[in-house]
Design a protein that fits this description.
The chain is an all-alpha fold and about 300 residues long. It has one domain (about 1-110, about 125-295): ABC transporter involved in vitamin B12 uptake, BtuC, CATH 1.10.3470. The chain has helices at about 1-30, 40-55, 60-85, 90-105, 130-135, 140-160, 160-170, 175-180, 185-210, 220-230, 235-260, 265-285, 285-295. Helix 2 (about 40-55) packs across helix 9 (about 185-210) and helix 3 packs antiparallel against helix 9. The radius of gyration is 19 Å and the shape is globular. It starts with a helix and ends in a 13-residue tail after the last helix. Keywords: Cell membrane, Membrane, Transmembrane, Transmembrane helix. GO terms for molecular function: transmembrane transporter activity. InterPro entries: ABC_transp_permease. It is a multi-pass membrane protein.
Length: about 300
């Protein structure tokens, strides 16, 4: 039973990285912007957050540094695609490639560095309950933040005027512009908010989840987070559940090895990506369902003068 509790706990921790990043990308896409640069932003934020943590010995400063790096890169991306009308997909890919190279260059001096100290967290009393305690109540606060963020985003998007405006910008920016809303500024704020969340996910990965910096350590999680938004048909709660599903797939192989099942390491490495392909193939069988839930102007440039 203890091994299953540890598996459930590892699934939640691994899924948190994907959930926070995917929720950030969801905000982008609700505003009509597709950012394929999540992988690069997360890598730059991972080294930025880890470096800040190493020098300050304060994990929260590391998280803030990661969010700042993610927001800065997303802001640059936003200026290019929103004001200069560069192609969103090409610009996002360029940002991702830049992040891979830049993070490797900046992180050379931090490859051997270790986090200032191990962090152990447990909710008093609840953390001591057999099975439930190790599975649910011994996690870093950001694990619970991801859950709270999901419900906060649901409330914001579907219960507030600001959320309605954001969704209208993603559905019909021309109509929103005609009503007097600053479409470009709204899209830029959404892109930077999404970038900050991707940055937080990257910093969590290096500061808490692994406690070290390794070149290209995001290892495709940015692409999986991007696929999660489609898998979840742009709904926050489904993003959270999908993140935990993929987190479970990531950890399942290690659990099998721990109980004596011989699983090749190459198979473990490919499992999350195979799961991503399978899930996307399954939901693609019903394109009408995707079109109904997809923001109508996603990926399309907006020209306010037209």
């Amino acid at each position: 039973m203890e091994s299953y509790a540890l598996l459930l706990g590892a699934m939640l921790s691994a899924g948190t990285v994907l959930a926070i990043a995917a929720l950030g990308l969801l905000i982008n896409e609700k505003a009509g912007i597709v950012n394929l640069g999540a992988e690069g932003m997360m890598l730059c934020a991972a080294i930025g957050g880890f470096a800040a943590y190493v020098h300050t010995h304060n994990a929260w400063i590391g998280f803030a540094a990661g969010m700042a790096v993610g927001a800065l890169l997303a802001g640059l991306f936003g200026v290019l695609v929103i004001w200069l009308n560069t192609n969103q997909y090409a610009t996002g890919l360029a940002l991702s490639l830049f992040g891979v190279g830049f993070s490797a260059f900046v992180g050379i001096n931090y490859v051997q560095a270790k986090a200032p100290g191990g962090m152990a967290f447990a909710i008093p009393v609840l953390g001591d309950i057999p099975f439930i305690g190790p599975a649910l109540f011994r996690h870093h606060p950001l694990v619970y933040f991801a859950v709270a963020l999901t419900f906060a985003l649901i409330w914001f998007l579907y219960r507030t005027r600001a959320g309605l405006v954001l969704r209208s910008v993603g559905e019909s920016p021309e109509s929103a512009h005609a009503l007097g809303y600053p479409v470009r500024r709204i899209r830029l704020m959404a892109v930077m908010a999404g970038g900050a969340l991707c940055g937080l996910a990257g910093a969590y990965l290096s500061v808490v989840y692994t406690g070290l910096w390794v070149e290209n350590m995001v290892a495709g999680r940015g692409w999986i987070a991007l696929a999660l938004t489609t898998f979840a048909t742009w709904r926050p709660l489904r993003v959270l559940l999908g993140a935990y599903l993929f987190g479970g797939v990531t950890q399942l192989g290690f659990h099998l090895q721990s109980v004596g099942v011989d699983v090749p390491s190459q198979f473990l490495a490919m499992m999350p990506y195979v799961a991503t392909i399978v899930v996307l193939a399954l939901i693609s069988r019903n394109p009408a369902f995707i079109r109904v839930n997809m923001p109508a102007s996603i990926g399309k440039p907006f020209y306010p003068g037209s």
